[in-house]
Write a structure and sequence with these properties.
Layout (H helix, E strand, L loop, with lengths): L1 H29 L3 H31 L4 E3 L5 E3 L10 E2 L2 E2 L1 H33 L6 H11 L9 H18 L1
Antiparallel strand pairs: 1-2, 3-4
Helix pairs in contact: 1-2, 2-3, 2-4, 2-5, 3-5
Length: about 170
């Protein structure tokens, strides 16, 4: 059903992130040579950053799908993504499945929609402040995000992500 797919879309990035964290610490435990270990760990961080950038719009758009509802002539409201789901928060004194999705959607909207750009920006800003943007280690970790732009515009990929998200937000909620 739609709700199961929606929950899967919300949880899947957490599992993938957990796998990458596990892989990062597995390299920490299993590879004794510091440079080789750091190289592998940097690849894991790079993979996580690439996935965050590529999946950002999809995942964040999914988080707000429960809020895109259509009101019908009989004053009932249904979700645009699944007309079988009524946009009703309470049935009697109990929360509905829609209410659960809407509340989780708001949590994941903040977690993914705000958290991903803030996390990427903070990592890049730290590298900028520490004057390590040109170092091999920083390029191995985050190069994919900022290497196309000059160092003073290291944040531009994040600005592009936010612009794409605003575009999707306007389309979904209009």
């Amino acid at each position: 059903s739609y709700t199961q797919k929606w929950y899967s879309a919300m949880i899947l990035p957490l599992f993938v992130g957990g796998y990458l964290v596990m892989q990062y610490y597995l390299y920490e435990a299993c590879i004794a040579h510091v440079l080789i270990r750091k190289q592998h760990q940097n690849k894991v961080i790079n993979t996580a950053c690439i996935m965050m950038v590529l999946l950002y719009v999809f995942v964040t758009a999914k988080t707000i799908e429960p809020y895109a509802c259509t009101e019908w002539e009989d004053k009932s409201k249904t979700m645009n993504a699944d007309p079988n789901v009524e946009c009703v928060w309470f049935r009697g004194n109990e929360f509905t499945k829609y209410a659960e999705m809407a509340m989780l959607g708001m949590f994941f909207f903040i977690f993914y929609g705000v958290g991903i750009p803030v996390t990427l920006f903070s990592m890049l800003y730290k590298a900028k402040i520490n004057h390590t943007m040109g170092s091999v280690m920083t390029k191995e970790k985050f190069g994919w995000i900022y290497i196309r732009f000059t160092y003073e515009y290291y944040f531009w990929e994040i600005a592009i992500m936010c612009r794409k998200f605003l575009f999707v937000l306007v389309i979904l909620l209009s």
